[in-house]
Amino acid sequence: MSIIELIVKKRDGGAFSTSEIHQLIAFICDPSIPDFQISAILMAIYLKGMNEREVVDLTLAMAHSGDSLDFGTIEGIVVDKHSTGGVGDKTSLVLMPLVAAAGLKVAKISGRGLGHTGGTLDKLSVFEGFRYDLTKDEIITGVQSRGIVLTGQTDHMVPADMRMYALRDLTATVDALPLIASSIMSKKIAAGAQAILLDVKVGSGAIFSNIDRARQLARIMVSIGRSLDIPTKAILTDMNAPLGRAVGNALEVKEAIETLQGGGNRQLKDLCLYLGSKLLVLSGKISSSQDATNQLDMLIKSGKALNQLKVMVEGQGGKSEYINHPEKILLSPLQLTLKASQSGYIQSIHAQKIGRGSMYSGAGRVHKDDKLDLGAGILLHKDSGDFVHVGEALLTIYASHQVKLENAMDAVRDAFAINTTEPELEPLIKEEL
Q1: Which residue out of 122, 161, 199, 373 is catalytically annotated?
Q2: Domain-embedded: residue 430
Q3: Residue among 81, 90, 108, 168 flagged as catalytic
Q4: Which of 188, 249, 386, 405 is the most exposed place for a label (fewest CB within 10 A)?
Q5: Are 107 and 187 in a shared domain?
Q6: Residue 53 annotated in active site
Q7: Which residue in the list 108, 116, 187, 245 is annotated as catalytic?
Q8: Residue 168 designated active-site
């Protein structure tokens, strides 16, 4: 089939055969096929959708479009976790060293942030010298010797997704469920994951504010894993408010380290213990979620989880002095504090507004090539449900330029809803699939 015939078939609502999907991926990986024809296919998929068999076929074809990792000779279960993105979501910095300390092998391919959601690789850049451009051999060696690797996608891994992802961003097809699911799962499969945990965010700071859409995405991804005999679990978690109190790269690294030290934000720690326990059970390491939670909690208290973060950072060339002294992490020099204009209970903290404020401060990218200010961001002083008095500090913005500081303040000025009645808070964990 030609590329034109494939466009016509999906435009008219047809289902691609397995061979046609392999041909489609070949076209996507062929630089002589113009972007506008690939974009037409993406829009046709967005409008007409795909059935479950098509999505599984698409995921496998994408995963096999380039290099893949094989951990067959490594003892232990290789696991991966993916979050659909949120505000203040530094979970990977806590969770992955934690489960590695529990004996799981971690090979996580992470990305950079765009817009109001942060990226794990940007956060890891706070550790000067940290390498996230590891080769295939370096990833395998790192997992074998240290038990954990967090790195970026290589140029030769899932090249089909690289092109599709870039064009989706330019053609308003980012939130097409078959394309999201295949993008996420193809990278996990190519990265050799033997058990996959999916943290699907729901709320104002997530890609989906509608729980039905988030649930649908989760089900598609779990069905892909099931079809390929890869143990896969999805957890729907709340992202109407930021996760933790730190939003911005250096601030989030500091909070993650404090959490691994046994302090930090309680909500963040509880989420990581919950997700970690599910990953240990999913991989067959432990049969009871409660036993897994207890073990993970002990790994934090003993310092072993924090040491695992240090081993990873040093193993990938990063300076690790901040891990024992997070108070030395440098923040941007200018500060501006938002204070409560009335007394009362904090009913909600609007995640997207906080995320946009952090982005405008210099902590996030408006465009893909924007250079980040790693020390910029927002530190929340209160949580949803807290009582505040008029004039009390709600948050502090950090930036390196006055204009960015003021733009960030404009974005967050009405992010806090305050009322005289104590609110009933939404649970952080919404559903398991």
Answers
A1: 161
A2: no
A3: 168
A4: 386
A5: yes
A6: no
A7: 187
A8: yes
In the set 82, 123, 233, 285, the catalytic residue is 82
Burial class (CB in 10 A: 0-12, 13-18, 19+), 39: middle
Q: Domain containing 359: what range?
A: 328-419
The answer, as to whether pTM is greater than 0.90, is yes
Between CA 97 and CA 105 the distance in angstroms is 10
- The per-residue pLDDT for range 143-179, each reduced to its tens digit, is 999 999 999 887 789 999 999 988 998 899 988 999 9
Catalytic site residue from 65, 110, 125, 183: 183
| Cα-trace Rg, the chain | 22
Total number of domains constituting the chain: 3
Residue 431 lies in a domain: no
Q: Give the Cα separation of 125 and 369 in Å (integer).
A: 16
Same domain, 197 and 320: yes
Can 82 be counted among the known catalytic residues? Answer: yes
- Does residue 257 sit in the same domain as residue 172? yes
Residues 83 and 224 grouped into a single domain: yes
Residue 364 CA, distance from chain mean position: 14
Q: In this structure, are 179 and 251 located in the same domain? A: yes
- Model confidence pLDDT, tens digit, residues 198-224: 999 999 999 889 999 999 999 999 999
Active-site residue flag, 116: no
Q: Of the candidates 301, 324, 347, which is a domain's last residue?
A: 324
Same structural domain for residues 84 and 167?
yes
